[in-house]
Amino acid sequence: MYNGGKIITGLVIFLALVTFPIYYSVGKSNPHPNPSLDTPVINKMPVKHCVESREFMRADHMKLLRGWMKTVLSGKSCVYVSSTGEKYDMAWDTCWNCHSNKKEFCDRCHNYMAVSLPCWKCHSEPNT
Amino acid sequence: MAKEPKKEDLLQSISYKAPKTFWMDTPTQIKPGMFCWGAKAKSMNVVGMPNARDWNPAEEDWKLPENWQEILIEGLRERLDKYRSLRLFLDICVRCGACADKCHFYIGTGDPKNMPVVRGELMRSVYRKYFTTGGKMFGKLAGAREMDLQVLKEWWTYFFQCTECRRCSVFCPYGIDHAEITIAGRELLNLLGLNIEWIQGPVSNCFMKGNHLGLEPQTIVSNIEFMVDDIETLTGIRINPTFNRKGAEILFVTPSGDLFGDPGVYTCMGYLMLFHELGLDYTWSTYASEGGNFGFFTSNEMAKRLNAKIYAEAKRLGVKWILGGECGHMWRLVHQYMNTWNGPADFLEVPKSPITGTVFDNARATKMTHIIEFTADLMKHGKLKLDPSRNDHLKVTFHDSCNTSRGMGLLEEPRYVLKNVCRNFHEMPRETIREQTFCCGSGSGLNAGEDMELRLRGGLPRANAVKYVHDKHGVNMLANICAIDRATLTASMNYWVPGVAVAGTHELVANALVMKGEKKRETDLRGEPLPLPEEQTNVSARAVTEKAGGEANV
Amino acid sequence: MKALLPFLAVVFLVLLAVVGVKAAGLYFVFGVAVPYAAAAVFLLGFVYRVVKWGKTPVPFHIPTTCGQQKSLPWIKPNGIENPSGTGGVVARMLLEVFLFRSLFKNRKTKMKGEYLSYSWAPWLWLGGMAFHWSFLLIVVRHLRFFFQSVPAPVQGLEHLDSILNWGVPALYITDVIFLAAVTFLFLRRVTLSQVKAITLPADFFPLFLLLGIGCSGVLMRYLKFFRVDVVGVKELVMGLVSLHPAAVSGIGTIFYVHLLLISTLFAYFPWSKLVHAPGVFLSPTRNLSNNSRVVRHVNPWNYPVKVHTYEEYENDFREKMKMAGVPVERE
Is there a domain that residue A23 lies in? Predict the structure, then answer.
């Protein structure tokens, strides 16, 4: 007895499962989320910069924001001093002032990575 | 024969703490009392085994053929291609250790090489070296090693310290059955003439004379005549069994252990009395006079050669179906191998009880029914008049045979039968019965005399569970459905739990069986006086039967 | 000692990725070539292994029966532990594969005074279940890197997994269970005497790989210093699965450590004990129904053997049989 039919069926199902992402995606376009920096305030900046470096913001913006929230709620301070010594208000408006385009900026990467945010449970979304 | 160790010393010597040295770096010792004599050239030649010679395992020189490594590796290659079980089990073990303390030989010796996983590694390490890329490339780092003389002696020692009981396979998350490894290991050792005489002798006997004990036809007849005389003394009824009778409805096949020696003969008397009482149209065969099969402990081919007699004889005699006696490994083979080897048995009919009309549909293809199935059916239909008070002097427990429980699932039938014929029945702890049952310690051809220490060690877990019910409930009778059990558990009980006797289930059935026209019984089958009449409850036998039937909870 | 070499091997792999990416800048090698090669070795090796088993016959019908057989109609059979048909076998296999049923039965044998005792010991079962299930859920969660728009079940799983809502980014429960379980599986190999006695270097290697994979993953998610650009990671992965691979720079070196260890695990899989995963499905003691007396099991290599025929037997014993009154074929 070999049970060849069952074994081959099992193998095919397994292979179909593990290679599913490949034939699902092959041939489809793979657009980069490209968060947009095209807002009036940013466009007017002579040197484009955020509160911290681009690399830092990419990887750690959520930690920064979480830190702001905690600091403000604890009542210690409302002012953030960046690594280059600049001072910023620890408030959403600091963000929205430049990034007035949530849909084209925040949402693009968050949707791309399927990140669900706890931010909007308390804060209302900006009107963009 | 090596001296039996003292009970206390034996228990003291068992430690489950592994030694410092890794098993692979621990040389194997071939210790007196722990091994069986090597097979003799004479016995091997009878059945044409290769490399037949007289040899002594205790001596340094095993007189191996020049190219023994090549024979072994090629033999392994051949078996890897023949048995998915072997190849798979060698590939997939993760050494999780779940099986480690499930083996009766490990529990009784504390020797890490008796952990089922390590018994597997004995072969797996060699498999890696010769058959896997990793093993070839990384050697010892990948757990691979050369097949050298030390490894060969290790194989021989530990493949003959496994009774193929399959308890490990119950607990393995992948169902790895180390019996499959041992079976393959013994086949390979047999290519080099490295069997043990306790297996090879019975094999050659069975081949030539039809049974392991080498009983010739006239001896079988006279042994049964002796039993018939004893039955007449006991009951006043003369039974006339027939032999090799053509045209009988049923061929009865039982292990030859039932034909010779205590307590097997009492079981056999039980069969004779039951069949007589039923007026069963059956015959014994002197040719197919062995249900057991020591060939299975030698090689698959040998097992098939010995097993062939059963169907051949059924065909020659023109019977309708086959009834099988109480035996463990015999039933694993009947149930899982016989029809594959020597079938299809299309010349037979589906077994049907002539008494109750029950068709044994579960034996539709193989056409062989277990006597316990047969008897349980009789009892269920109230066809037997039973007086269980005749077993009131016995407090009974039941030992499941490895093979009928893990290779078949015959669990409730014997309990039902026992509860119908005994009023004092106590189960051993849950972890030691049914599919978790422990081997008697001497199965798969290891029931010799010279390896008594090994048998007593391997028998410890079973005996210890009997001791528990002996101490707690006063159990004094260990019932079973296996000829090897009957022979070996007696020695184990005498050593570990004195005061407990061993009996086949049909012996107890015959004690309780009220036969038509029998005289008042004074003793049980063994000549032990029956309990005094005033102690007997005055209940009609039939009512007791029904009550017990209800309690059996099946 | 047995743990040292596998440990060093994994350390070497870690350093290899660090040096290869950080010093030599081999983004394409470690980001594209290695994972492609590993996937190919895994898939081909997996098929090879299963086909090799499949081509080896099952000559005999050898299920391990762990319950009452189906025999007489009034005896209740145990349809799962001793299946008599396909349905029972499927149920038994499902319980084995998804719930590790046999392992659940584990008992620890001890000598207590005069008696052997068998106490229920589900620890390995618990550790095994924790490891395998958390690993599976982690793999499924990672599918968010494999689809342009992430399937809803994957999002749902991620939501459930981070339901504790501890920290930012939120802690995954499976991460904790995975690392704890692998650590447990490692510790029992170095502390329990019986397990220690059977452990080979090949048992430590996958454990260290898994620990390395888990640690690098956790570091790059939760630790500030190690954090990576996940958008970059997804771009790289999407390039791989859409078969338009392109090296992506600026992800962070630890990601390549993670990736190399995973690639090694996959490439190692078909040649190691890890094949127990497909193997369990083919185990003849579990995947056969106990019906060998009902249906004849056919052995493809069954061959005729030399037997001792009745005729030969009668020739040996004819006179003795006649003397004993046993009928013979030829007088």
Answer: no
Choosing among C285, C288, C296, C321, which should be mutated to test the B contact, i.e. which has the most B CBs within 10 A?
C285
Percent of chain B with pLDDT over 90: 93
pLDDT band at B517 (very low <50, low <70, confident <90, very high): very high
Q: What is the pLDDT of residues B518-536, one digit of tens each?
A: 999 999 999 999 987 654 4
- Structural domains in chain C plus CATH codes: 4-300 (1.20.950.20), 304-331 (no CATH)
**Nearest Cβ partner for C239 among A2, A3, A30:** A30
Residue A71, in any domain of the structure:
yes
DSSP string covering B164-210: ---HHHHH-TT---HHHHHHHHHHHHHHTT--BHHHHHHHHHHHHHS
> Residue B427's pLDDT is what?
98
* Mutation site for A-interface testing, chosen from C162, C238, C288, C301 by largest number of A Cβ within 10 Å: C238
Closest Cβ–Cβ partner in A14, A59, A114 for C144: A114
Residue B539 has a pLDDT of 46
| Contact across the interface for A25 and C148, Cβ inside 8 Å | yes
Q: Looking at chain B, which residues constitute the CATH 1.20.1050 domain(s)?
A: 202-380
Number of domains in chain A: 1
Asked if C189 and C146 touch (Cβ cutoff 8 Å), the reply is: no
Instruction: Note whether C146 contacts A: Cβ–Cβ < 8 A.
Output: yes
pLDDT-above-70 percentage for chain A = 98
ipTM, two decimals, is 0.96
Nearest CA in chain C to B436: C66
Nearest to B257 by CA among B228, B225, B282, B294: B294
**Interchain proximity C241–A26, CB inside 8 Å:** yes
Mutate to test the interface with A, among C52, C141, C227 (most CBs of A within 10 A): C227
Judged by CB atoms closer than 8 Å, whether chains meet at A7 and C242 is answered as no
Q: How far apart are CA C176 and CA A124, in angstroms?
A: 33
Cβ neighbour number for residue C246 with a 10 Å cutoff: 14
Chain C positions in Cβ-Cβ contact with residue A28 (cut-off 8 Å): 148, 242
pLDDT tens, position by position, C253-281: 999 999 999 999 999 999 999 999 999 99
Question: At B244, which helix (H) or strand (E)?
Answer: none
For A77, what's the count of Cα atoms within 13 Å in the CB-facing half-sphere?
9
Residue A127 has a pLDDT of 66
Question: Is A60 inside any structural domain?
Answer: yes
pLDDT value of position B542: 44
Is the Cβ–Cβ distance between C44 and C28 less than 8 Å?
no
**Structural domain range at position A109:** 37-121
**CB pair distance less than 8 Å for B85 and C62:** yes
Please tell me which of the candidates B84, B305, B464 has its beta carbon nearest to residue C307: B305
Report yes or no on A77 lying in a domain: yes
Q: Counting every residue, how long is chain C?
A: 331
Inter-CA distances, A7 with B233, C45, C186, C279, C325, Å: 63, 15, 33, 11, 57
Q: Which residues of chain B lie closer than 8 angstroms to C124, CB-CB?
A: 96-98
State which fold the B202-380 domain adopts. Answer: Glutathione S-transferase Yfyf (Class Pi); Chain A, domain 2 (1.20.1050)
At residue B549, the pLDDT reads: 42
Q: What is the pLDDT of residue B2?
A: 59
How far does the CA of residue A10 sit from the closest CA of chain C (Å)? 9
What's the pLDDT score for residue B55? 97
Q: Looking at the DSSP assignment, which residues form a beta bridge with residue C119?
A: C108
Whether the CB-CB separation of B331 and B403 falls below 8 Å is answered with yes
* Bridge-based pairing state of the strands B477-480 and B396-398: parallel
| Contact flag C224-A28 (C-beta cutoff 8 Å) | no
Residue C74 makes CB contacts below 8 A (sequence gap 6+) with B380, B554
- Candidates C193, C198, C275; nearest CB to B17: C193
